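hiii, so i know i said id send this last week but things got crazy w the move. better late than never?? heres the sequnce for the chain we talked about at the cafe, plus the structure i predicted for it. fair warning i was half asleep when i ran it
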Amino acid sequence: MKKQTDFDRRLERRYDELKWLYCELYHNDTQAFGYFLKMLRSCWSQRKRALRAQDSLREADPGWYRRRELLGMMLYVDAFAGNLKGVKGKLSYLEECGVNYLHLMPLLDTPKGRSDGGYAVSNFRSVRPDLGTMDDLEKLADACRKRGISLCLDFVMNHTSEDHEWARRARAGESGYRERYFFYDSWAVPMEFEKTVPQVFPTTAPGSFTQLEDGQIVMTSFYPYQWDLNYANPAVFNDMTENLLFLANRGMDVLRLDAIPYIWKELGTDCRNLPQVHTLSRMLRIACEVVCPSVLLLGEVVMEPSKVAAYFGTTEKPECHMLYNVTTMATTWHTLATGDVSLLRRQMEALCALPKSFLFLNYLRCHDDIGWGLDYPWLRWSFGIDEVAHKRYLNDWFTGRWPGSDSRGELYNDDPRLGDARLCGTTASLCGLEAAVFEQDPFKVERAVACDLTLHAWMLSQSGIPVIYSGDEVGQLNDYTYHDDPDRREDSRYIHRGAFQWELAGHRDDPDTPQGKLFQGLRRLEQLRASEPCFDAGADVWVEDSGSPHVLALCRRTGDRELVCLFNFSQNFVQAGVNREGSYTELMYGTRYEDIHSIQLWPSGFAWLLRES
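okay and structure toks below
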């Protein structure tokens, strides 16, 4: 009898559900389903020995990615080290940073000047030539695996570049390719879509369709050069899944599903978060569990946690392994500008009520802008806050226009009519370090560094995987040189996408510099997190009243150990605490407290208070 392979064993366990989902979505197209199964088997057969060994290890330890020791960093290959070989040569630095989860920002082939930061892919199996080759990427993945670093890569699902082979053949009218997109000969149907579909970029790319030179009209939800894929066509799902598995076979550990809520389009809807999206994401999860069970799916879903949760699926039928905690990021910056923790506390109460199995990636900054998607109905009901006026206040604060603000940022997609501009800037510049250095004010430098470290301590205190944006570990400031680059000057997000400044990293061991204070302080926080059981993913987490509107109190407990985390979001000394008996030790600085009912917190300061046994 022929020995059953790992592939057969895994497929057998999931076959009935996979077939049911596929045939329901694609109207019993058994021919397409048969092709899909053959493709899965082929991808598994191409998976090299080292990756299959990792599959077996992680299949036996399915919670491997939930450990508190995980620390992520996201970076642009060219900005960080020039190319993929350069990143490989800098792995020792990343290890020194404590990084064991590395997210490489989009690096697949894209047209110059029409890439949307790498999200307009013209070839899913080729690396941008200036960054290297697919072989370079695979070698980097191999080197990362040997060092215990998991590698994450973006997978752009919703669309391709207009230069992709499918798009070129569709434009030419070739049979089988026009159907991979949404093509129309007149504006009749597109105008019906426009009645219900919100615009993604109303200022820079209005509308959801683009008319080509020959008169054809194609759906382009994001930018005119990004053509939306039609996932109602099984050939699209089959081939995109194969592209995803191709990248998994190059050694990627995590694949970020970009803009996944958008991938199913249906007339008369907003084309967001439709039920079919969850069918597709569940089938992708099954495909990975069968072919490459060590690979994780990270969903890019920009919504509040209670609505995002649907993309985790269910315990019996999971979808994404991890999701971004977008709203907490935005709410954190709102809290810094207002000095009031009410909304952040409400946000954390909602998060703490979710199942512990839900794993979020937490971050302060990323490659993108900060959108002010806050809970405005609650803010209006609780404080009488007007949405447009509040967004204007936040943007004025973080661009330094508001009196007393030392933040330095720039706006993105500013729409004066809607008051809906988004914000760009590095963490350090938004915390005031840029202004402090410019003014050569040592007092302000200390305050800015304290603010920066407190925000990172807050990020590290949350359950999930903390992810640092490259450069934040050394307080990198805004890079205004993008204004002089004709390919970038119209996109203010490049203000925080500048080249990594290695001269700053050269000061990381000098405690008398802002870079040294930040690097060493952050490493101390990360090491404490990795060693303290209260930071386990399975810990009980809740928020309490701190006695001050400026201070958030987050509590974590596992077994008999309890950690009370206090964060002062004001620029003044504050007395705050929680109602507890017994002695506590502050982990960062070693201060011992006999009573934490009311302790003094420094301006923009924090305390990690561990109860003594």
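btw DSSP finds 21 helices and 25 strands in the chain. thought thatd interest u
miss u guys!!
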